[in-house]
Amino acid sequence: MSRVGRLLNRRIEVWREASVDDGGGGQATTWVHQSTPRARRSQPSARERTAADQAGAELNETWYFAPGTDVQRRDQLRPPGRVLKVVAVFEPSEDGTYLRADCTLVQPLNSTT
């Protein structure tokens, strides 16, 4: 297990957009469940929020995963009651340490507001 492995205290669903045949000769877009890896949620620091603002993105949550976990930009993370869009994925300068996913909150499709 990686050094970060013992800190991954939750499981979170990872969903990815995919194109499927719509039955009428066209394509439709849908979300497909990829996996439910172990992860850790962390609040972004003031510096991370400022960097995100400067890049034109809102940063709501940061999630950490074991190195090699299949999480990509534009994926959705779905903790209970929320849907998050992955806006960036980073690996630290030391390979094999962890994978970090910066996320922004997405309004769930079935929400009534």
TrEMBL record:
Task: List, alphabetically, the InterPro entries matched.
Answer: Phage_SPP1_head-tail_adaptor (IPR008767), SSP1_head-tail_sf (IPR038666)
Signal sequence coordinates:
none
**Biased segments, Polar residues type:** 28-45
What Pfam families does this protein's entry cite?
Phage_HCP
Enumerate the residue ranges of region (Disordered).
Answer: 20-54
This protein's name: Head-tail adaptor protein
